[in-house]
Amino acid sequence: MKYVNANKMLPAELLRSIQEYTQGSYLYIPVREGHKKRWGTRTESKHLLRKRNESIISAYRSGASVKELALQYHLTESSIRRVLRDHK
Predict the structure, then answer these.
(1) Considering the entire predicted model, what is its pTM?
(2) CA nearest 83: which of 73, 7, 41?
(3) Side-chain half-sphere of 12: how many Cα atoms within 13 Å?
(4) When comparing pLDDT for 14 and 43, which is higher?
(5) Is the four-CA dihedral 69, 72, 73, 74 of positive or negative sign?
(6) How much is the pLDDT for 72?
(7) Cβ atoms of residues 18 and 26 within 8 Å
(8) Which of 3, 6, 60, 76 lies deepest, with the highest CB count within 10 Å?
(9) Helices 45-61 + 77-86 axis angle, to 10
(10) Contact by Cβ (8 Å): 73, 52
(11) Cβ atoms within 10 A of the Cβ of 57, count?
(12) Which of 68, 43, 41, 39 is nearest to 55 (CA)?
């Protein structure tokens, strides 16, 4: 999410109306119902995590220990176990 100055985006009348409620603060404007996107659809995060998890599973099946995988992927051992459990 990117910060945008309201002066550059909103009509002056609307900005004055908002200033009746808050001034000089950050305000999150939620996405309207029906326009929400699922997590990971705007970036490659979901895809990258899926590929990482596939690599973890493959390495585990090839004999790597949970401890080794935790060190290699900079995750906790419980996180590695969760990846393995969720992808059976």
Answers:
(1) 0.55
(2) 73
(3) 0
(4) 14
(5) positive
(6) 97
(7) no
(8) 60
(9) 90
(10) yes
(11) 17
(12) 68
Token look-up 């493959």 returns 58
As given in the structure block, the two tokens for residue 67 are 């401890």
Query: How do residues 29-83 score in pLDDT, each as one tens digit?
Result: 888 887 666 666 677 888 899 999 999 999 999 999 999 999 999 999 999 999 9
Per residue in 20-43, pLDDT (tens digit) is 999 888 888 888 887 666 666 677
10: amino acid identity, one letter: L
Could you write out the DSSP letters of every residue in the chain?
-----HHHHS-HHHHHHHHTT-SSS----PPPTT----TTSSSSHHHHHHHHHHHHHHHHHTT--HHHHHHHHT--HHHHHHHHHHT-
pLDDT at position 88: 66
How far is residue 67's CA from residue 80's CA, in Å, rounded to a whole number?
9
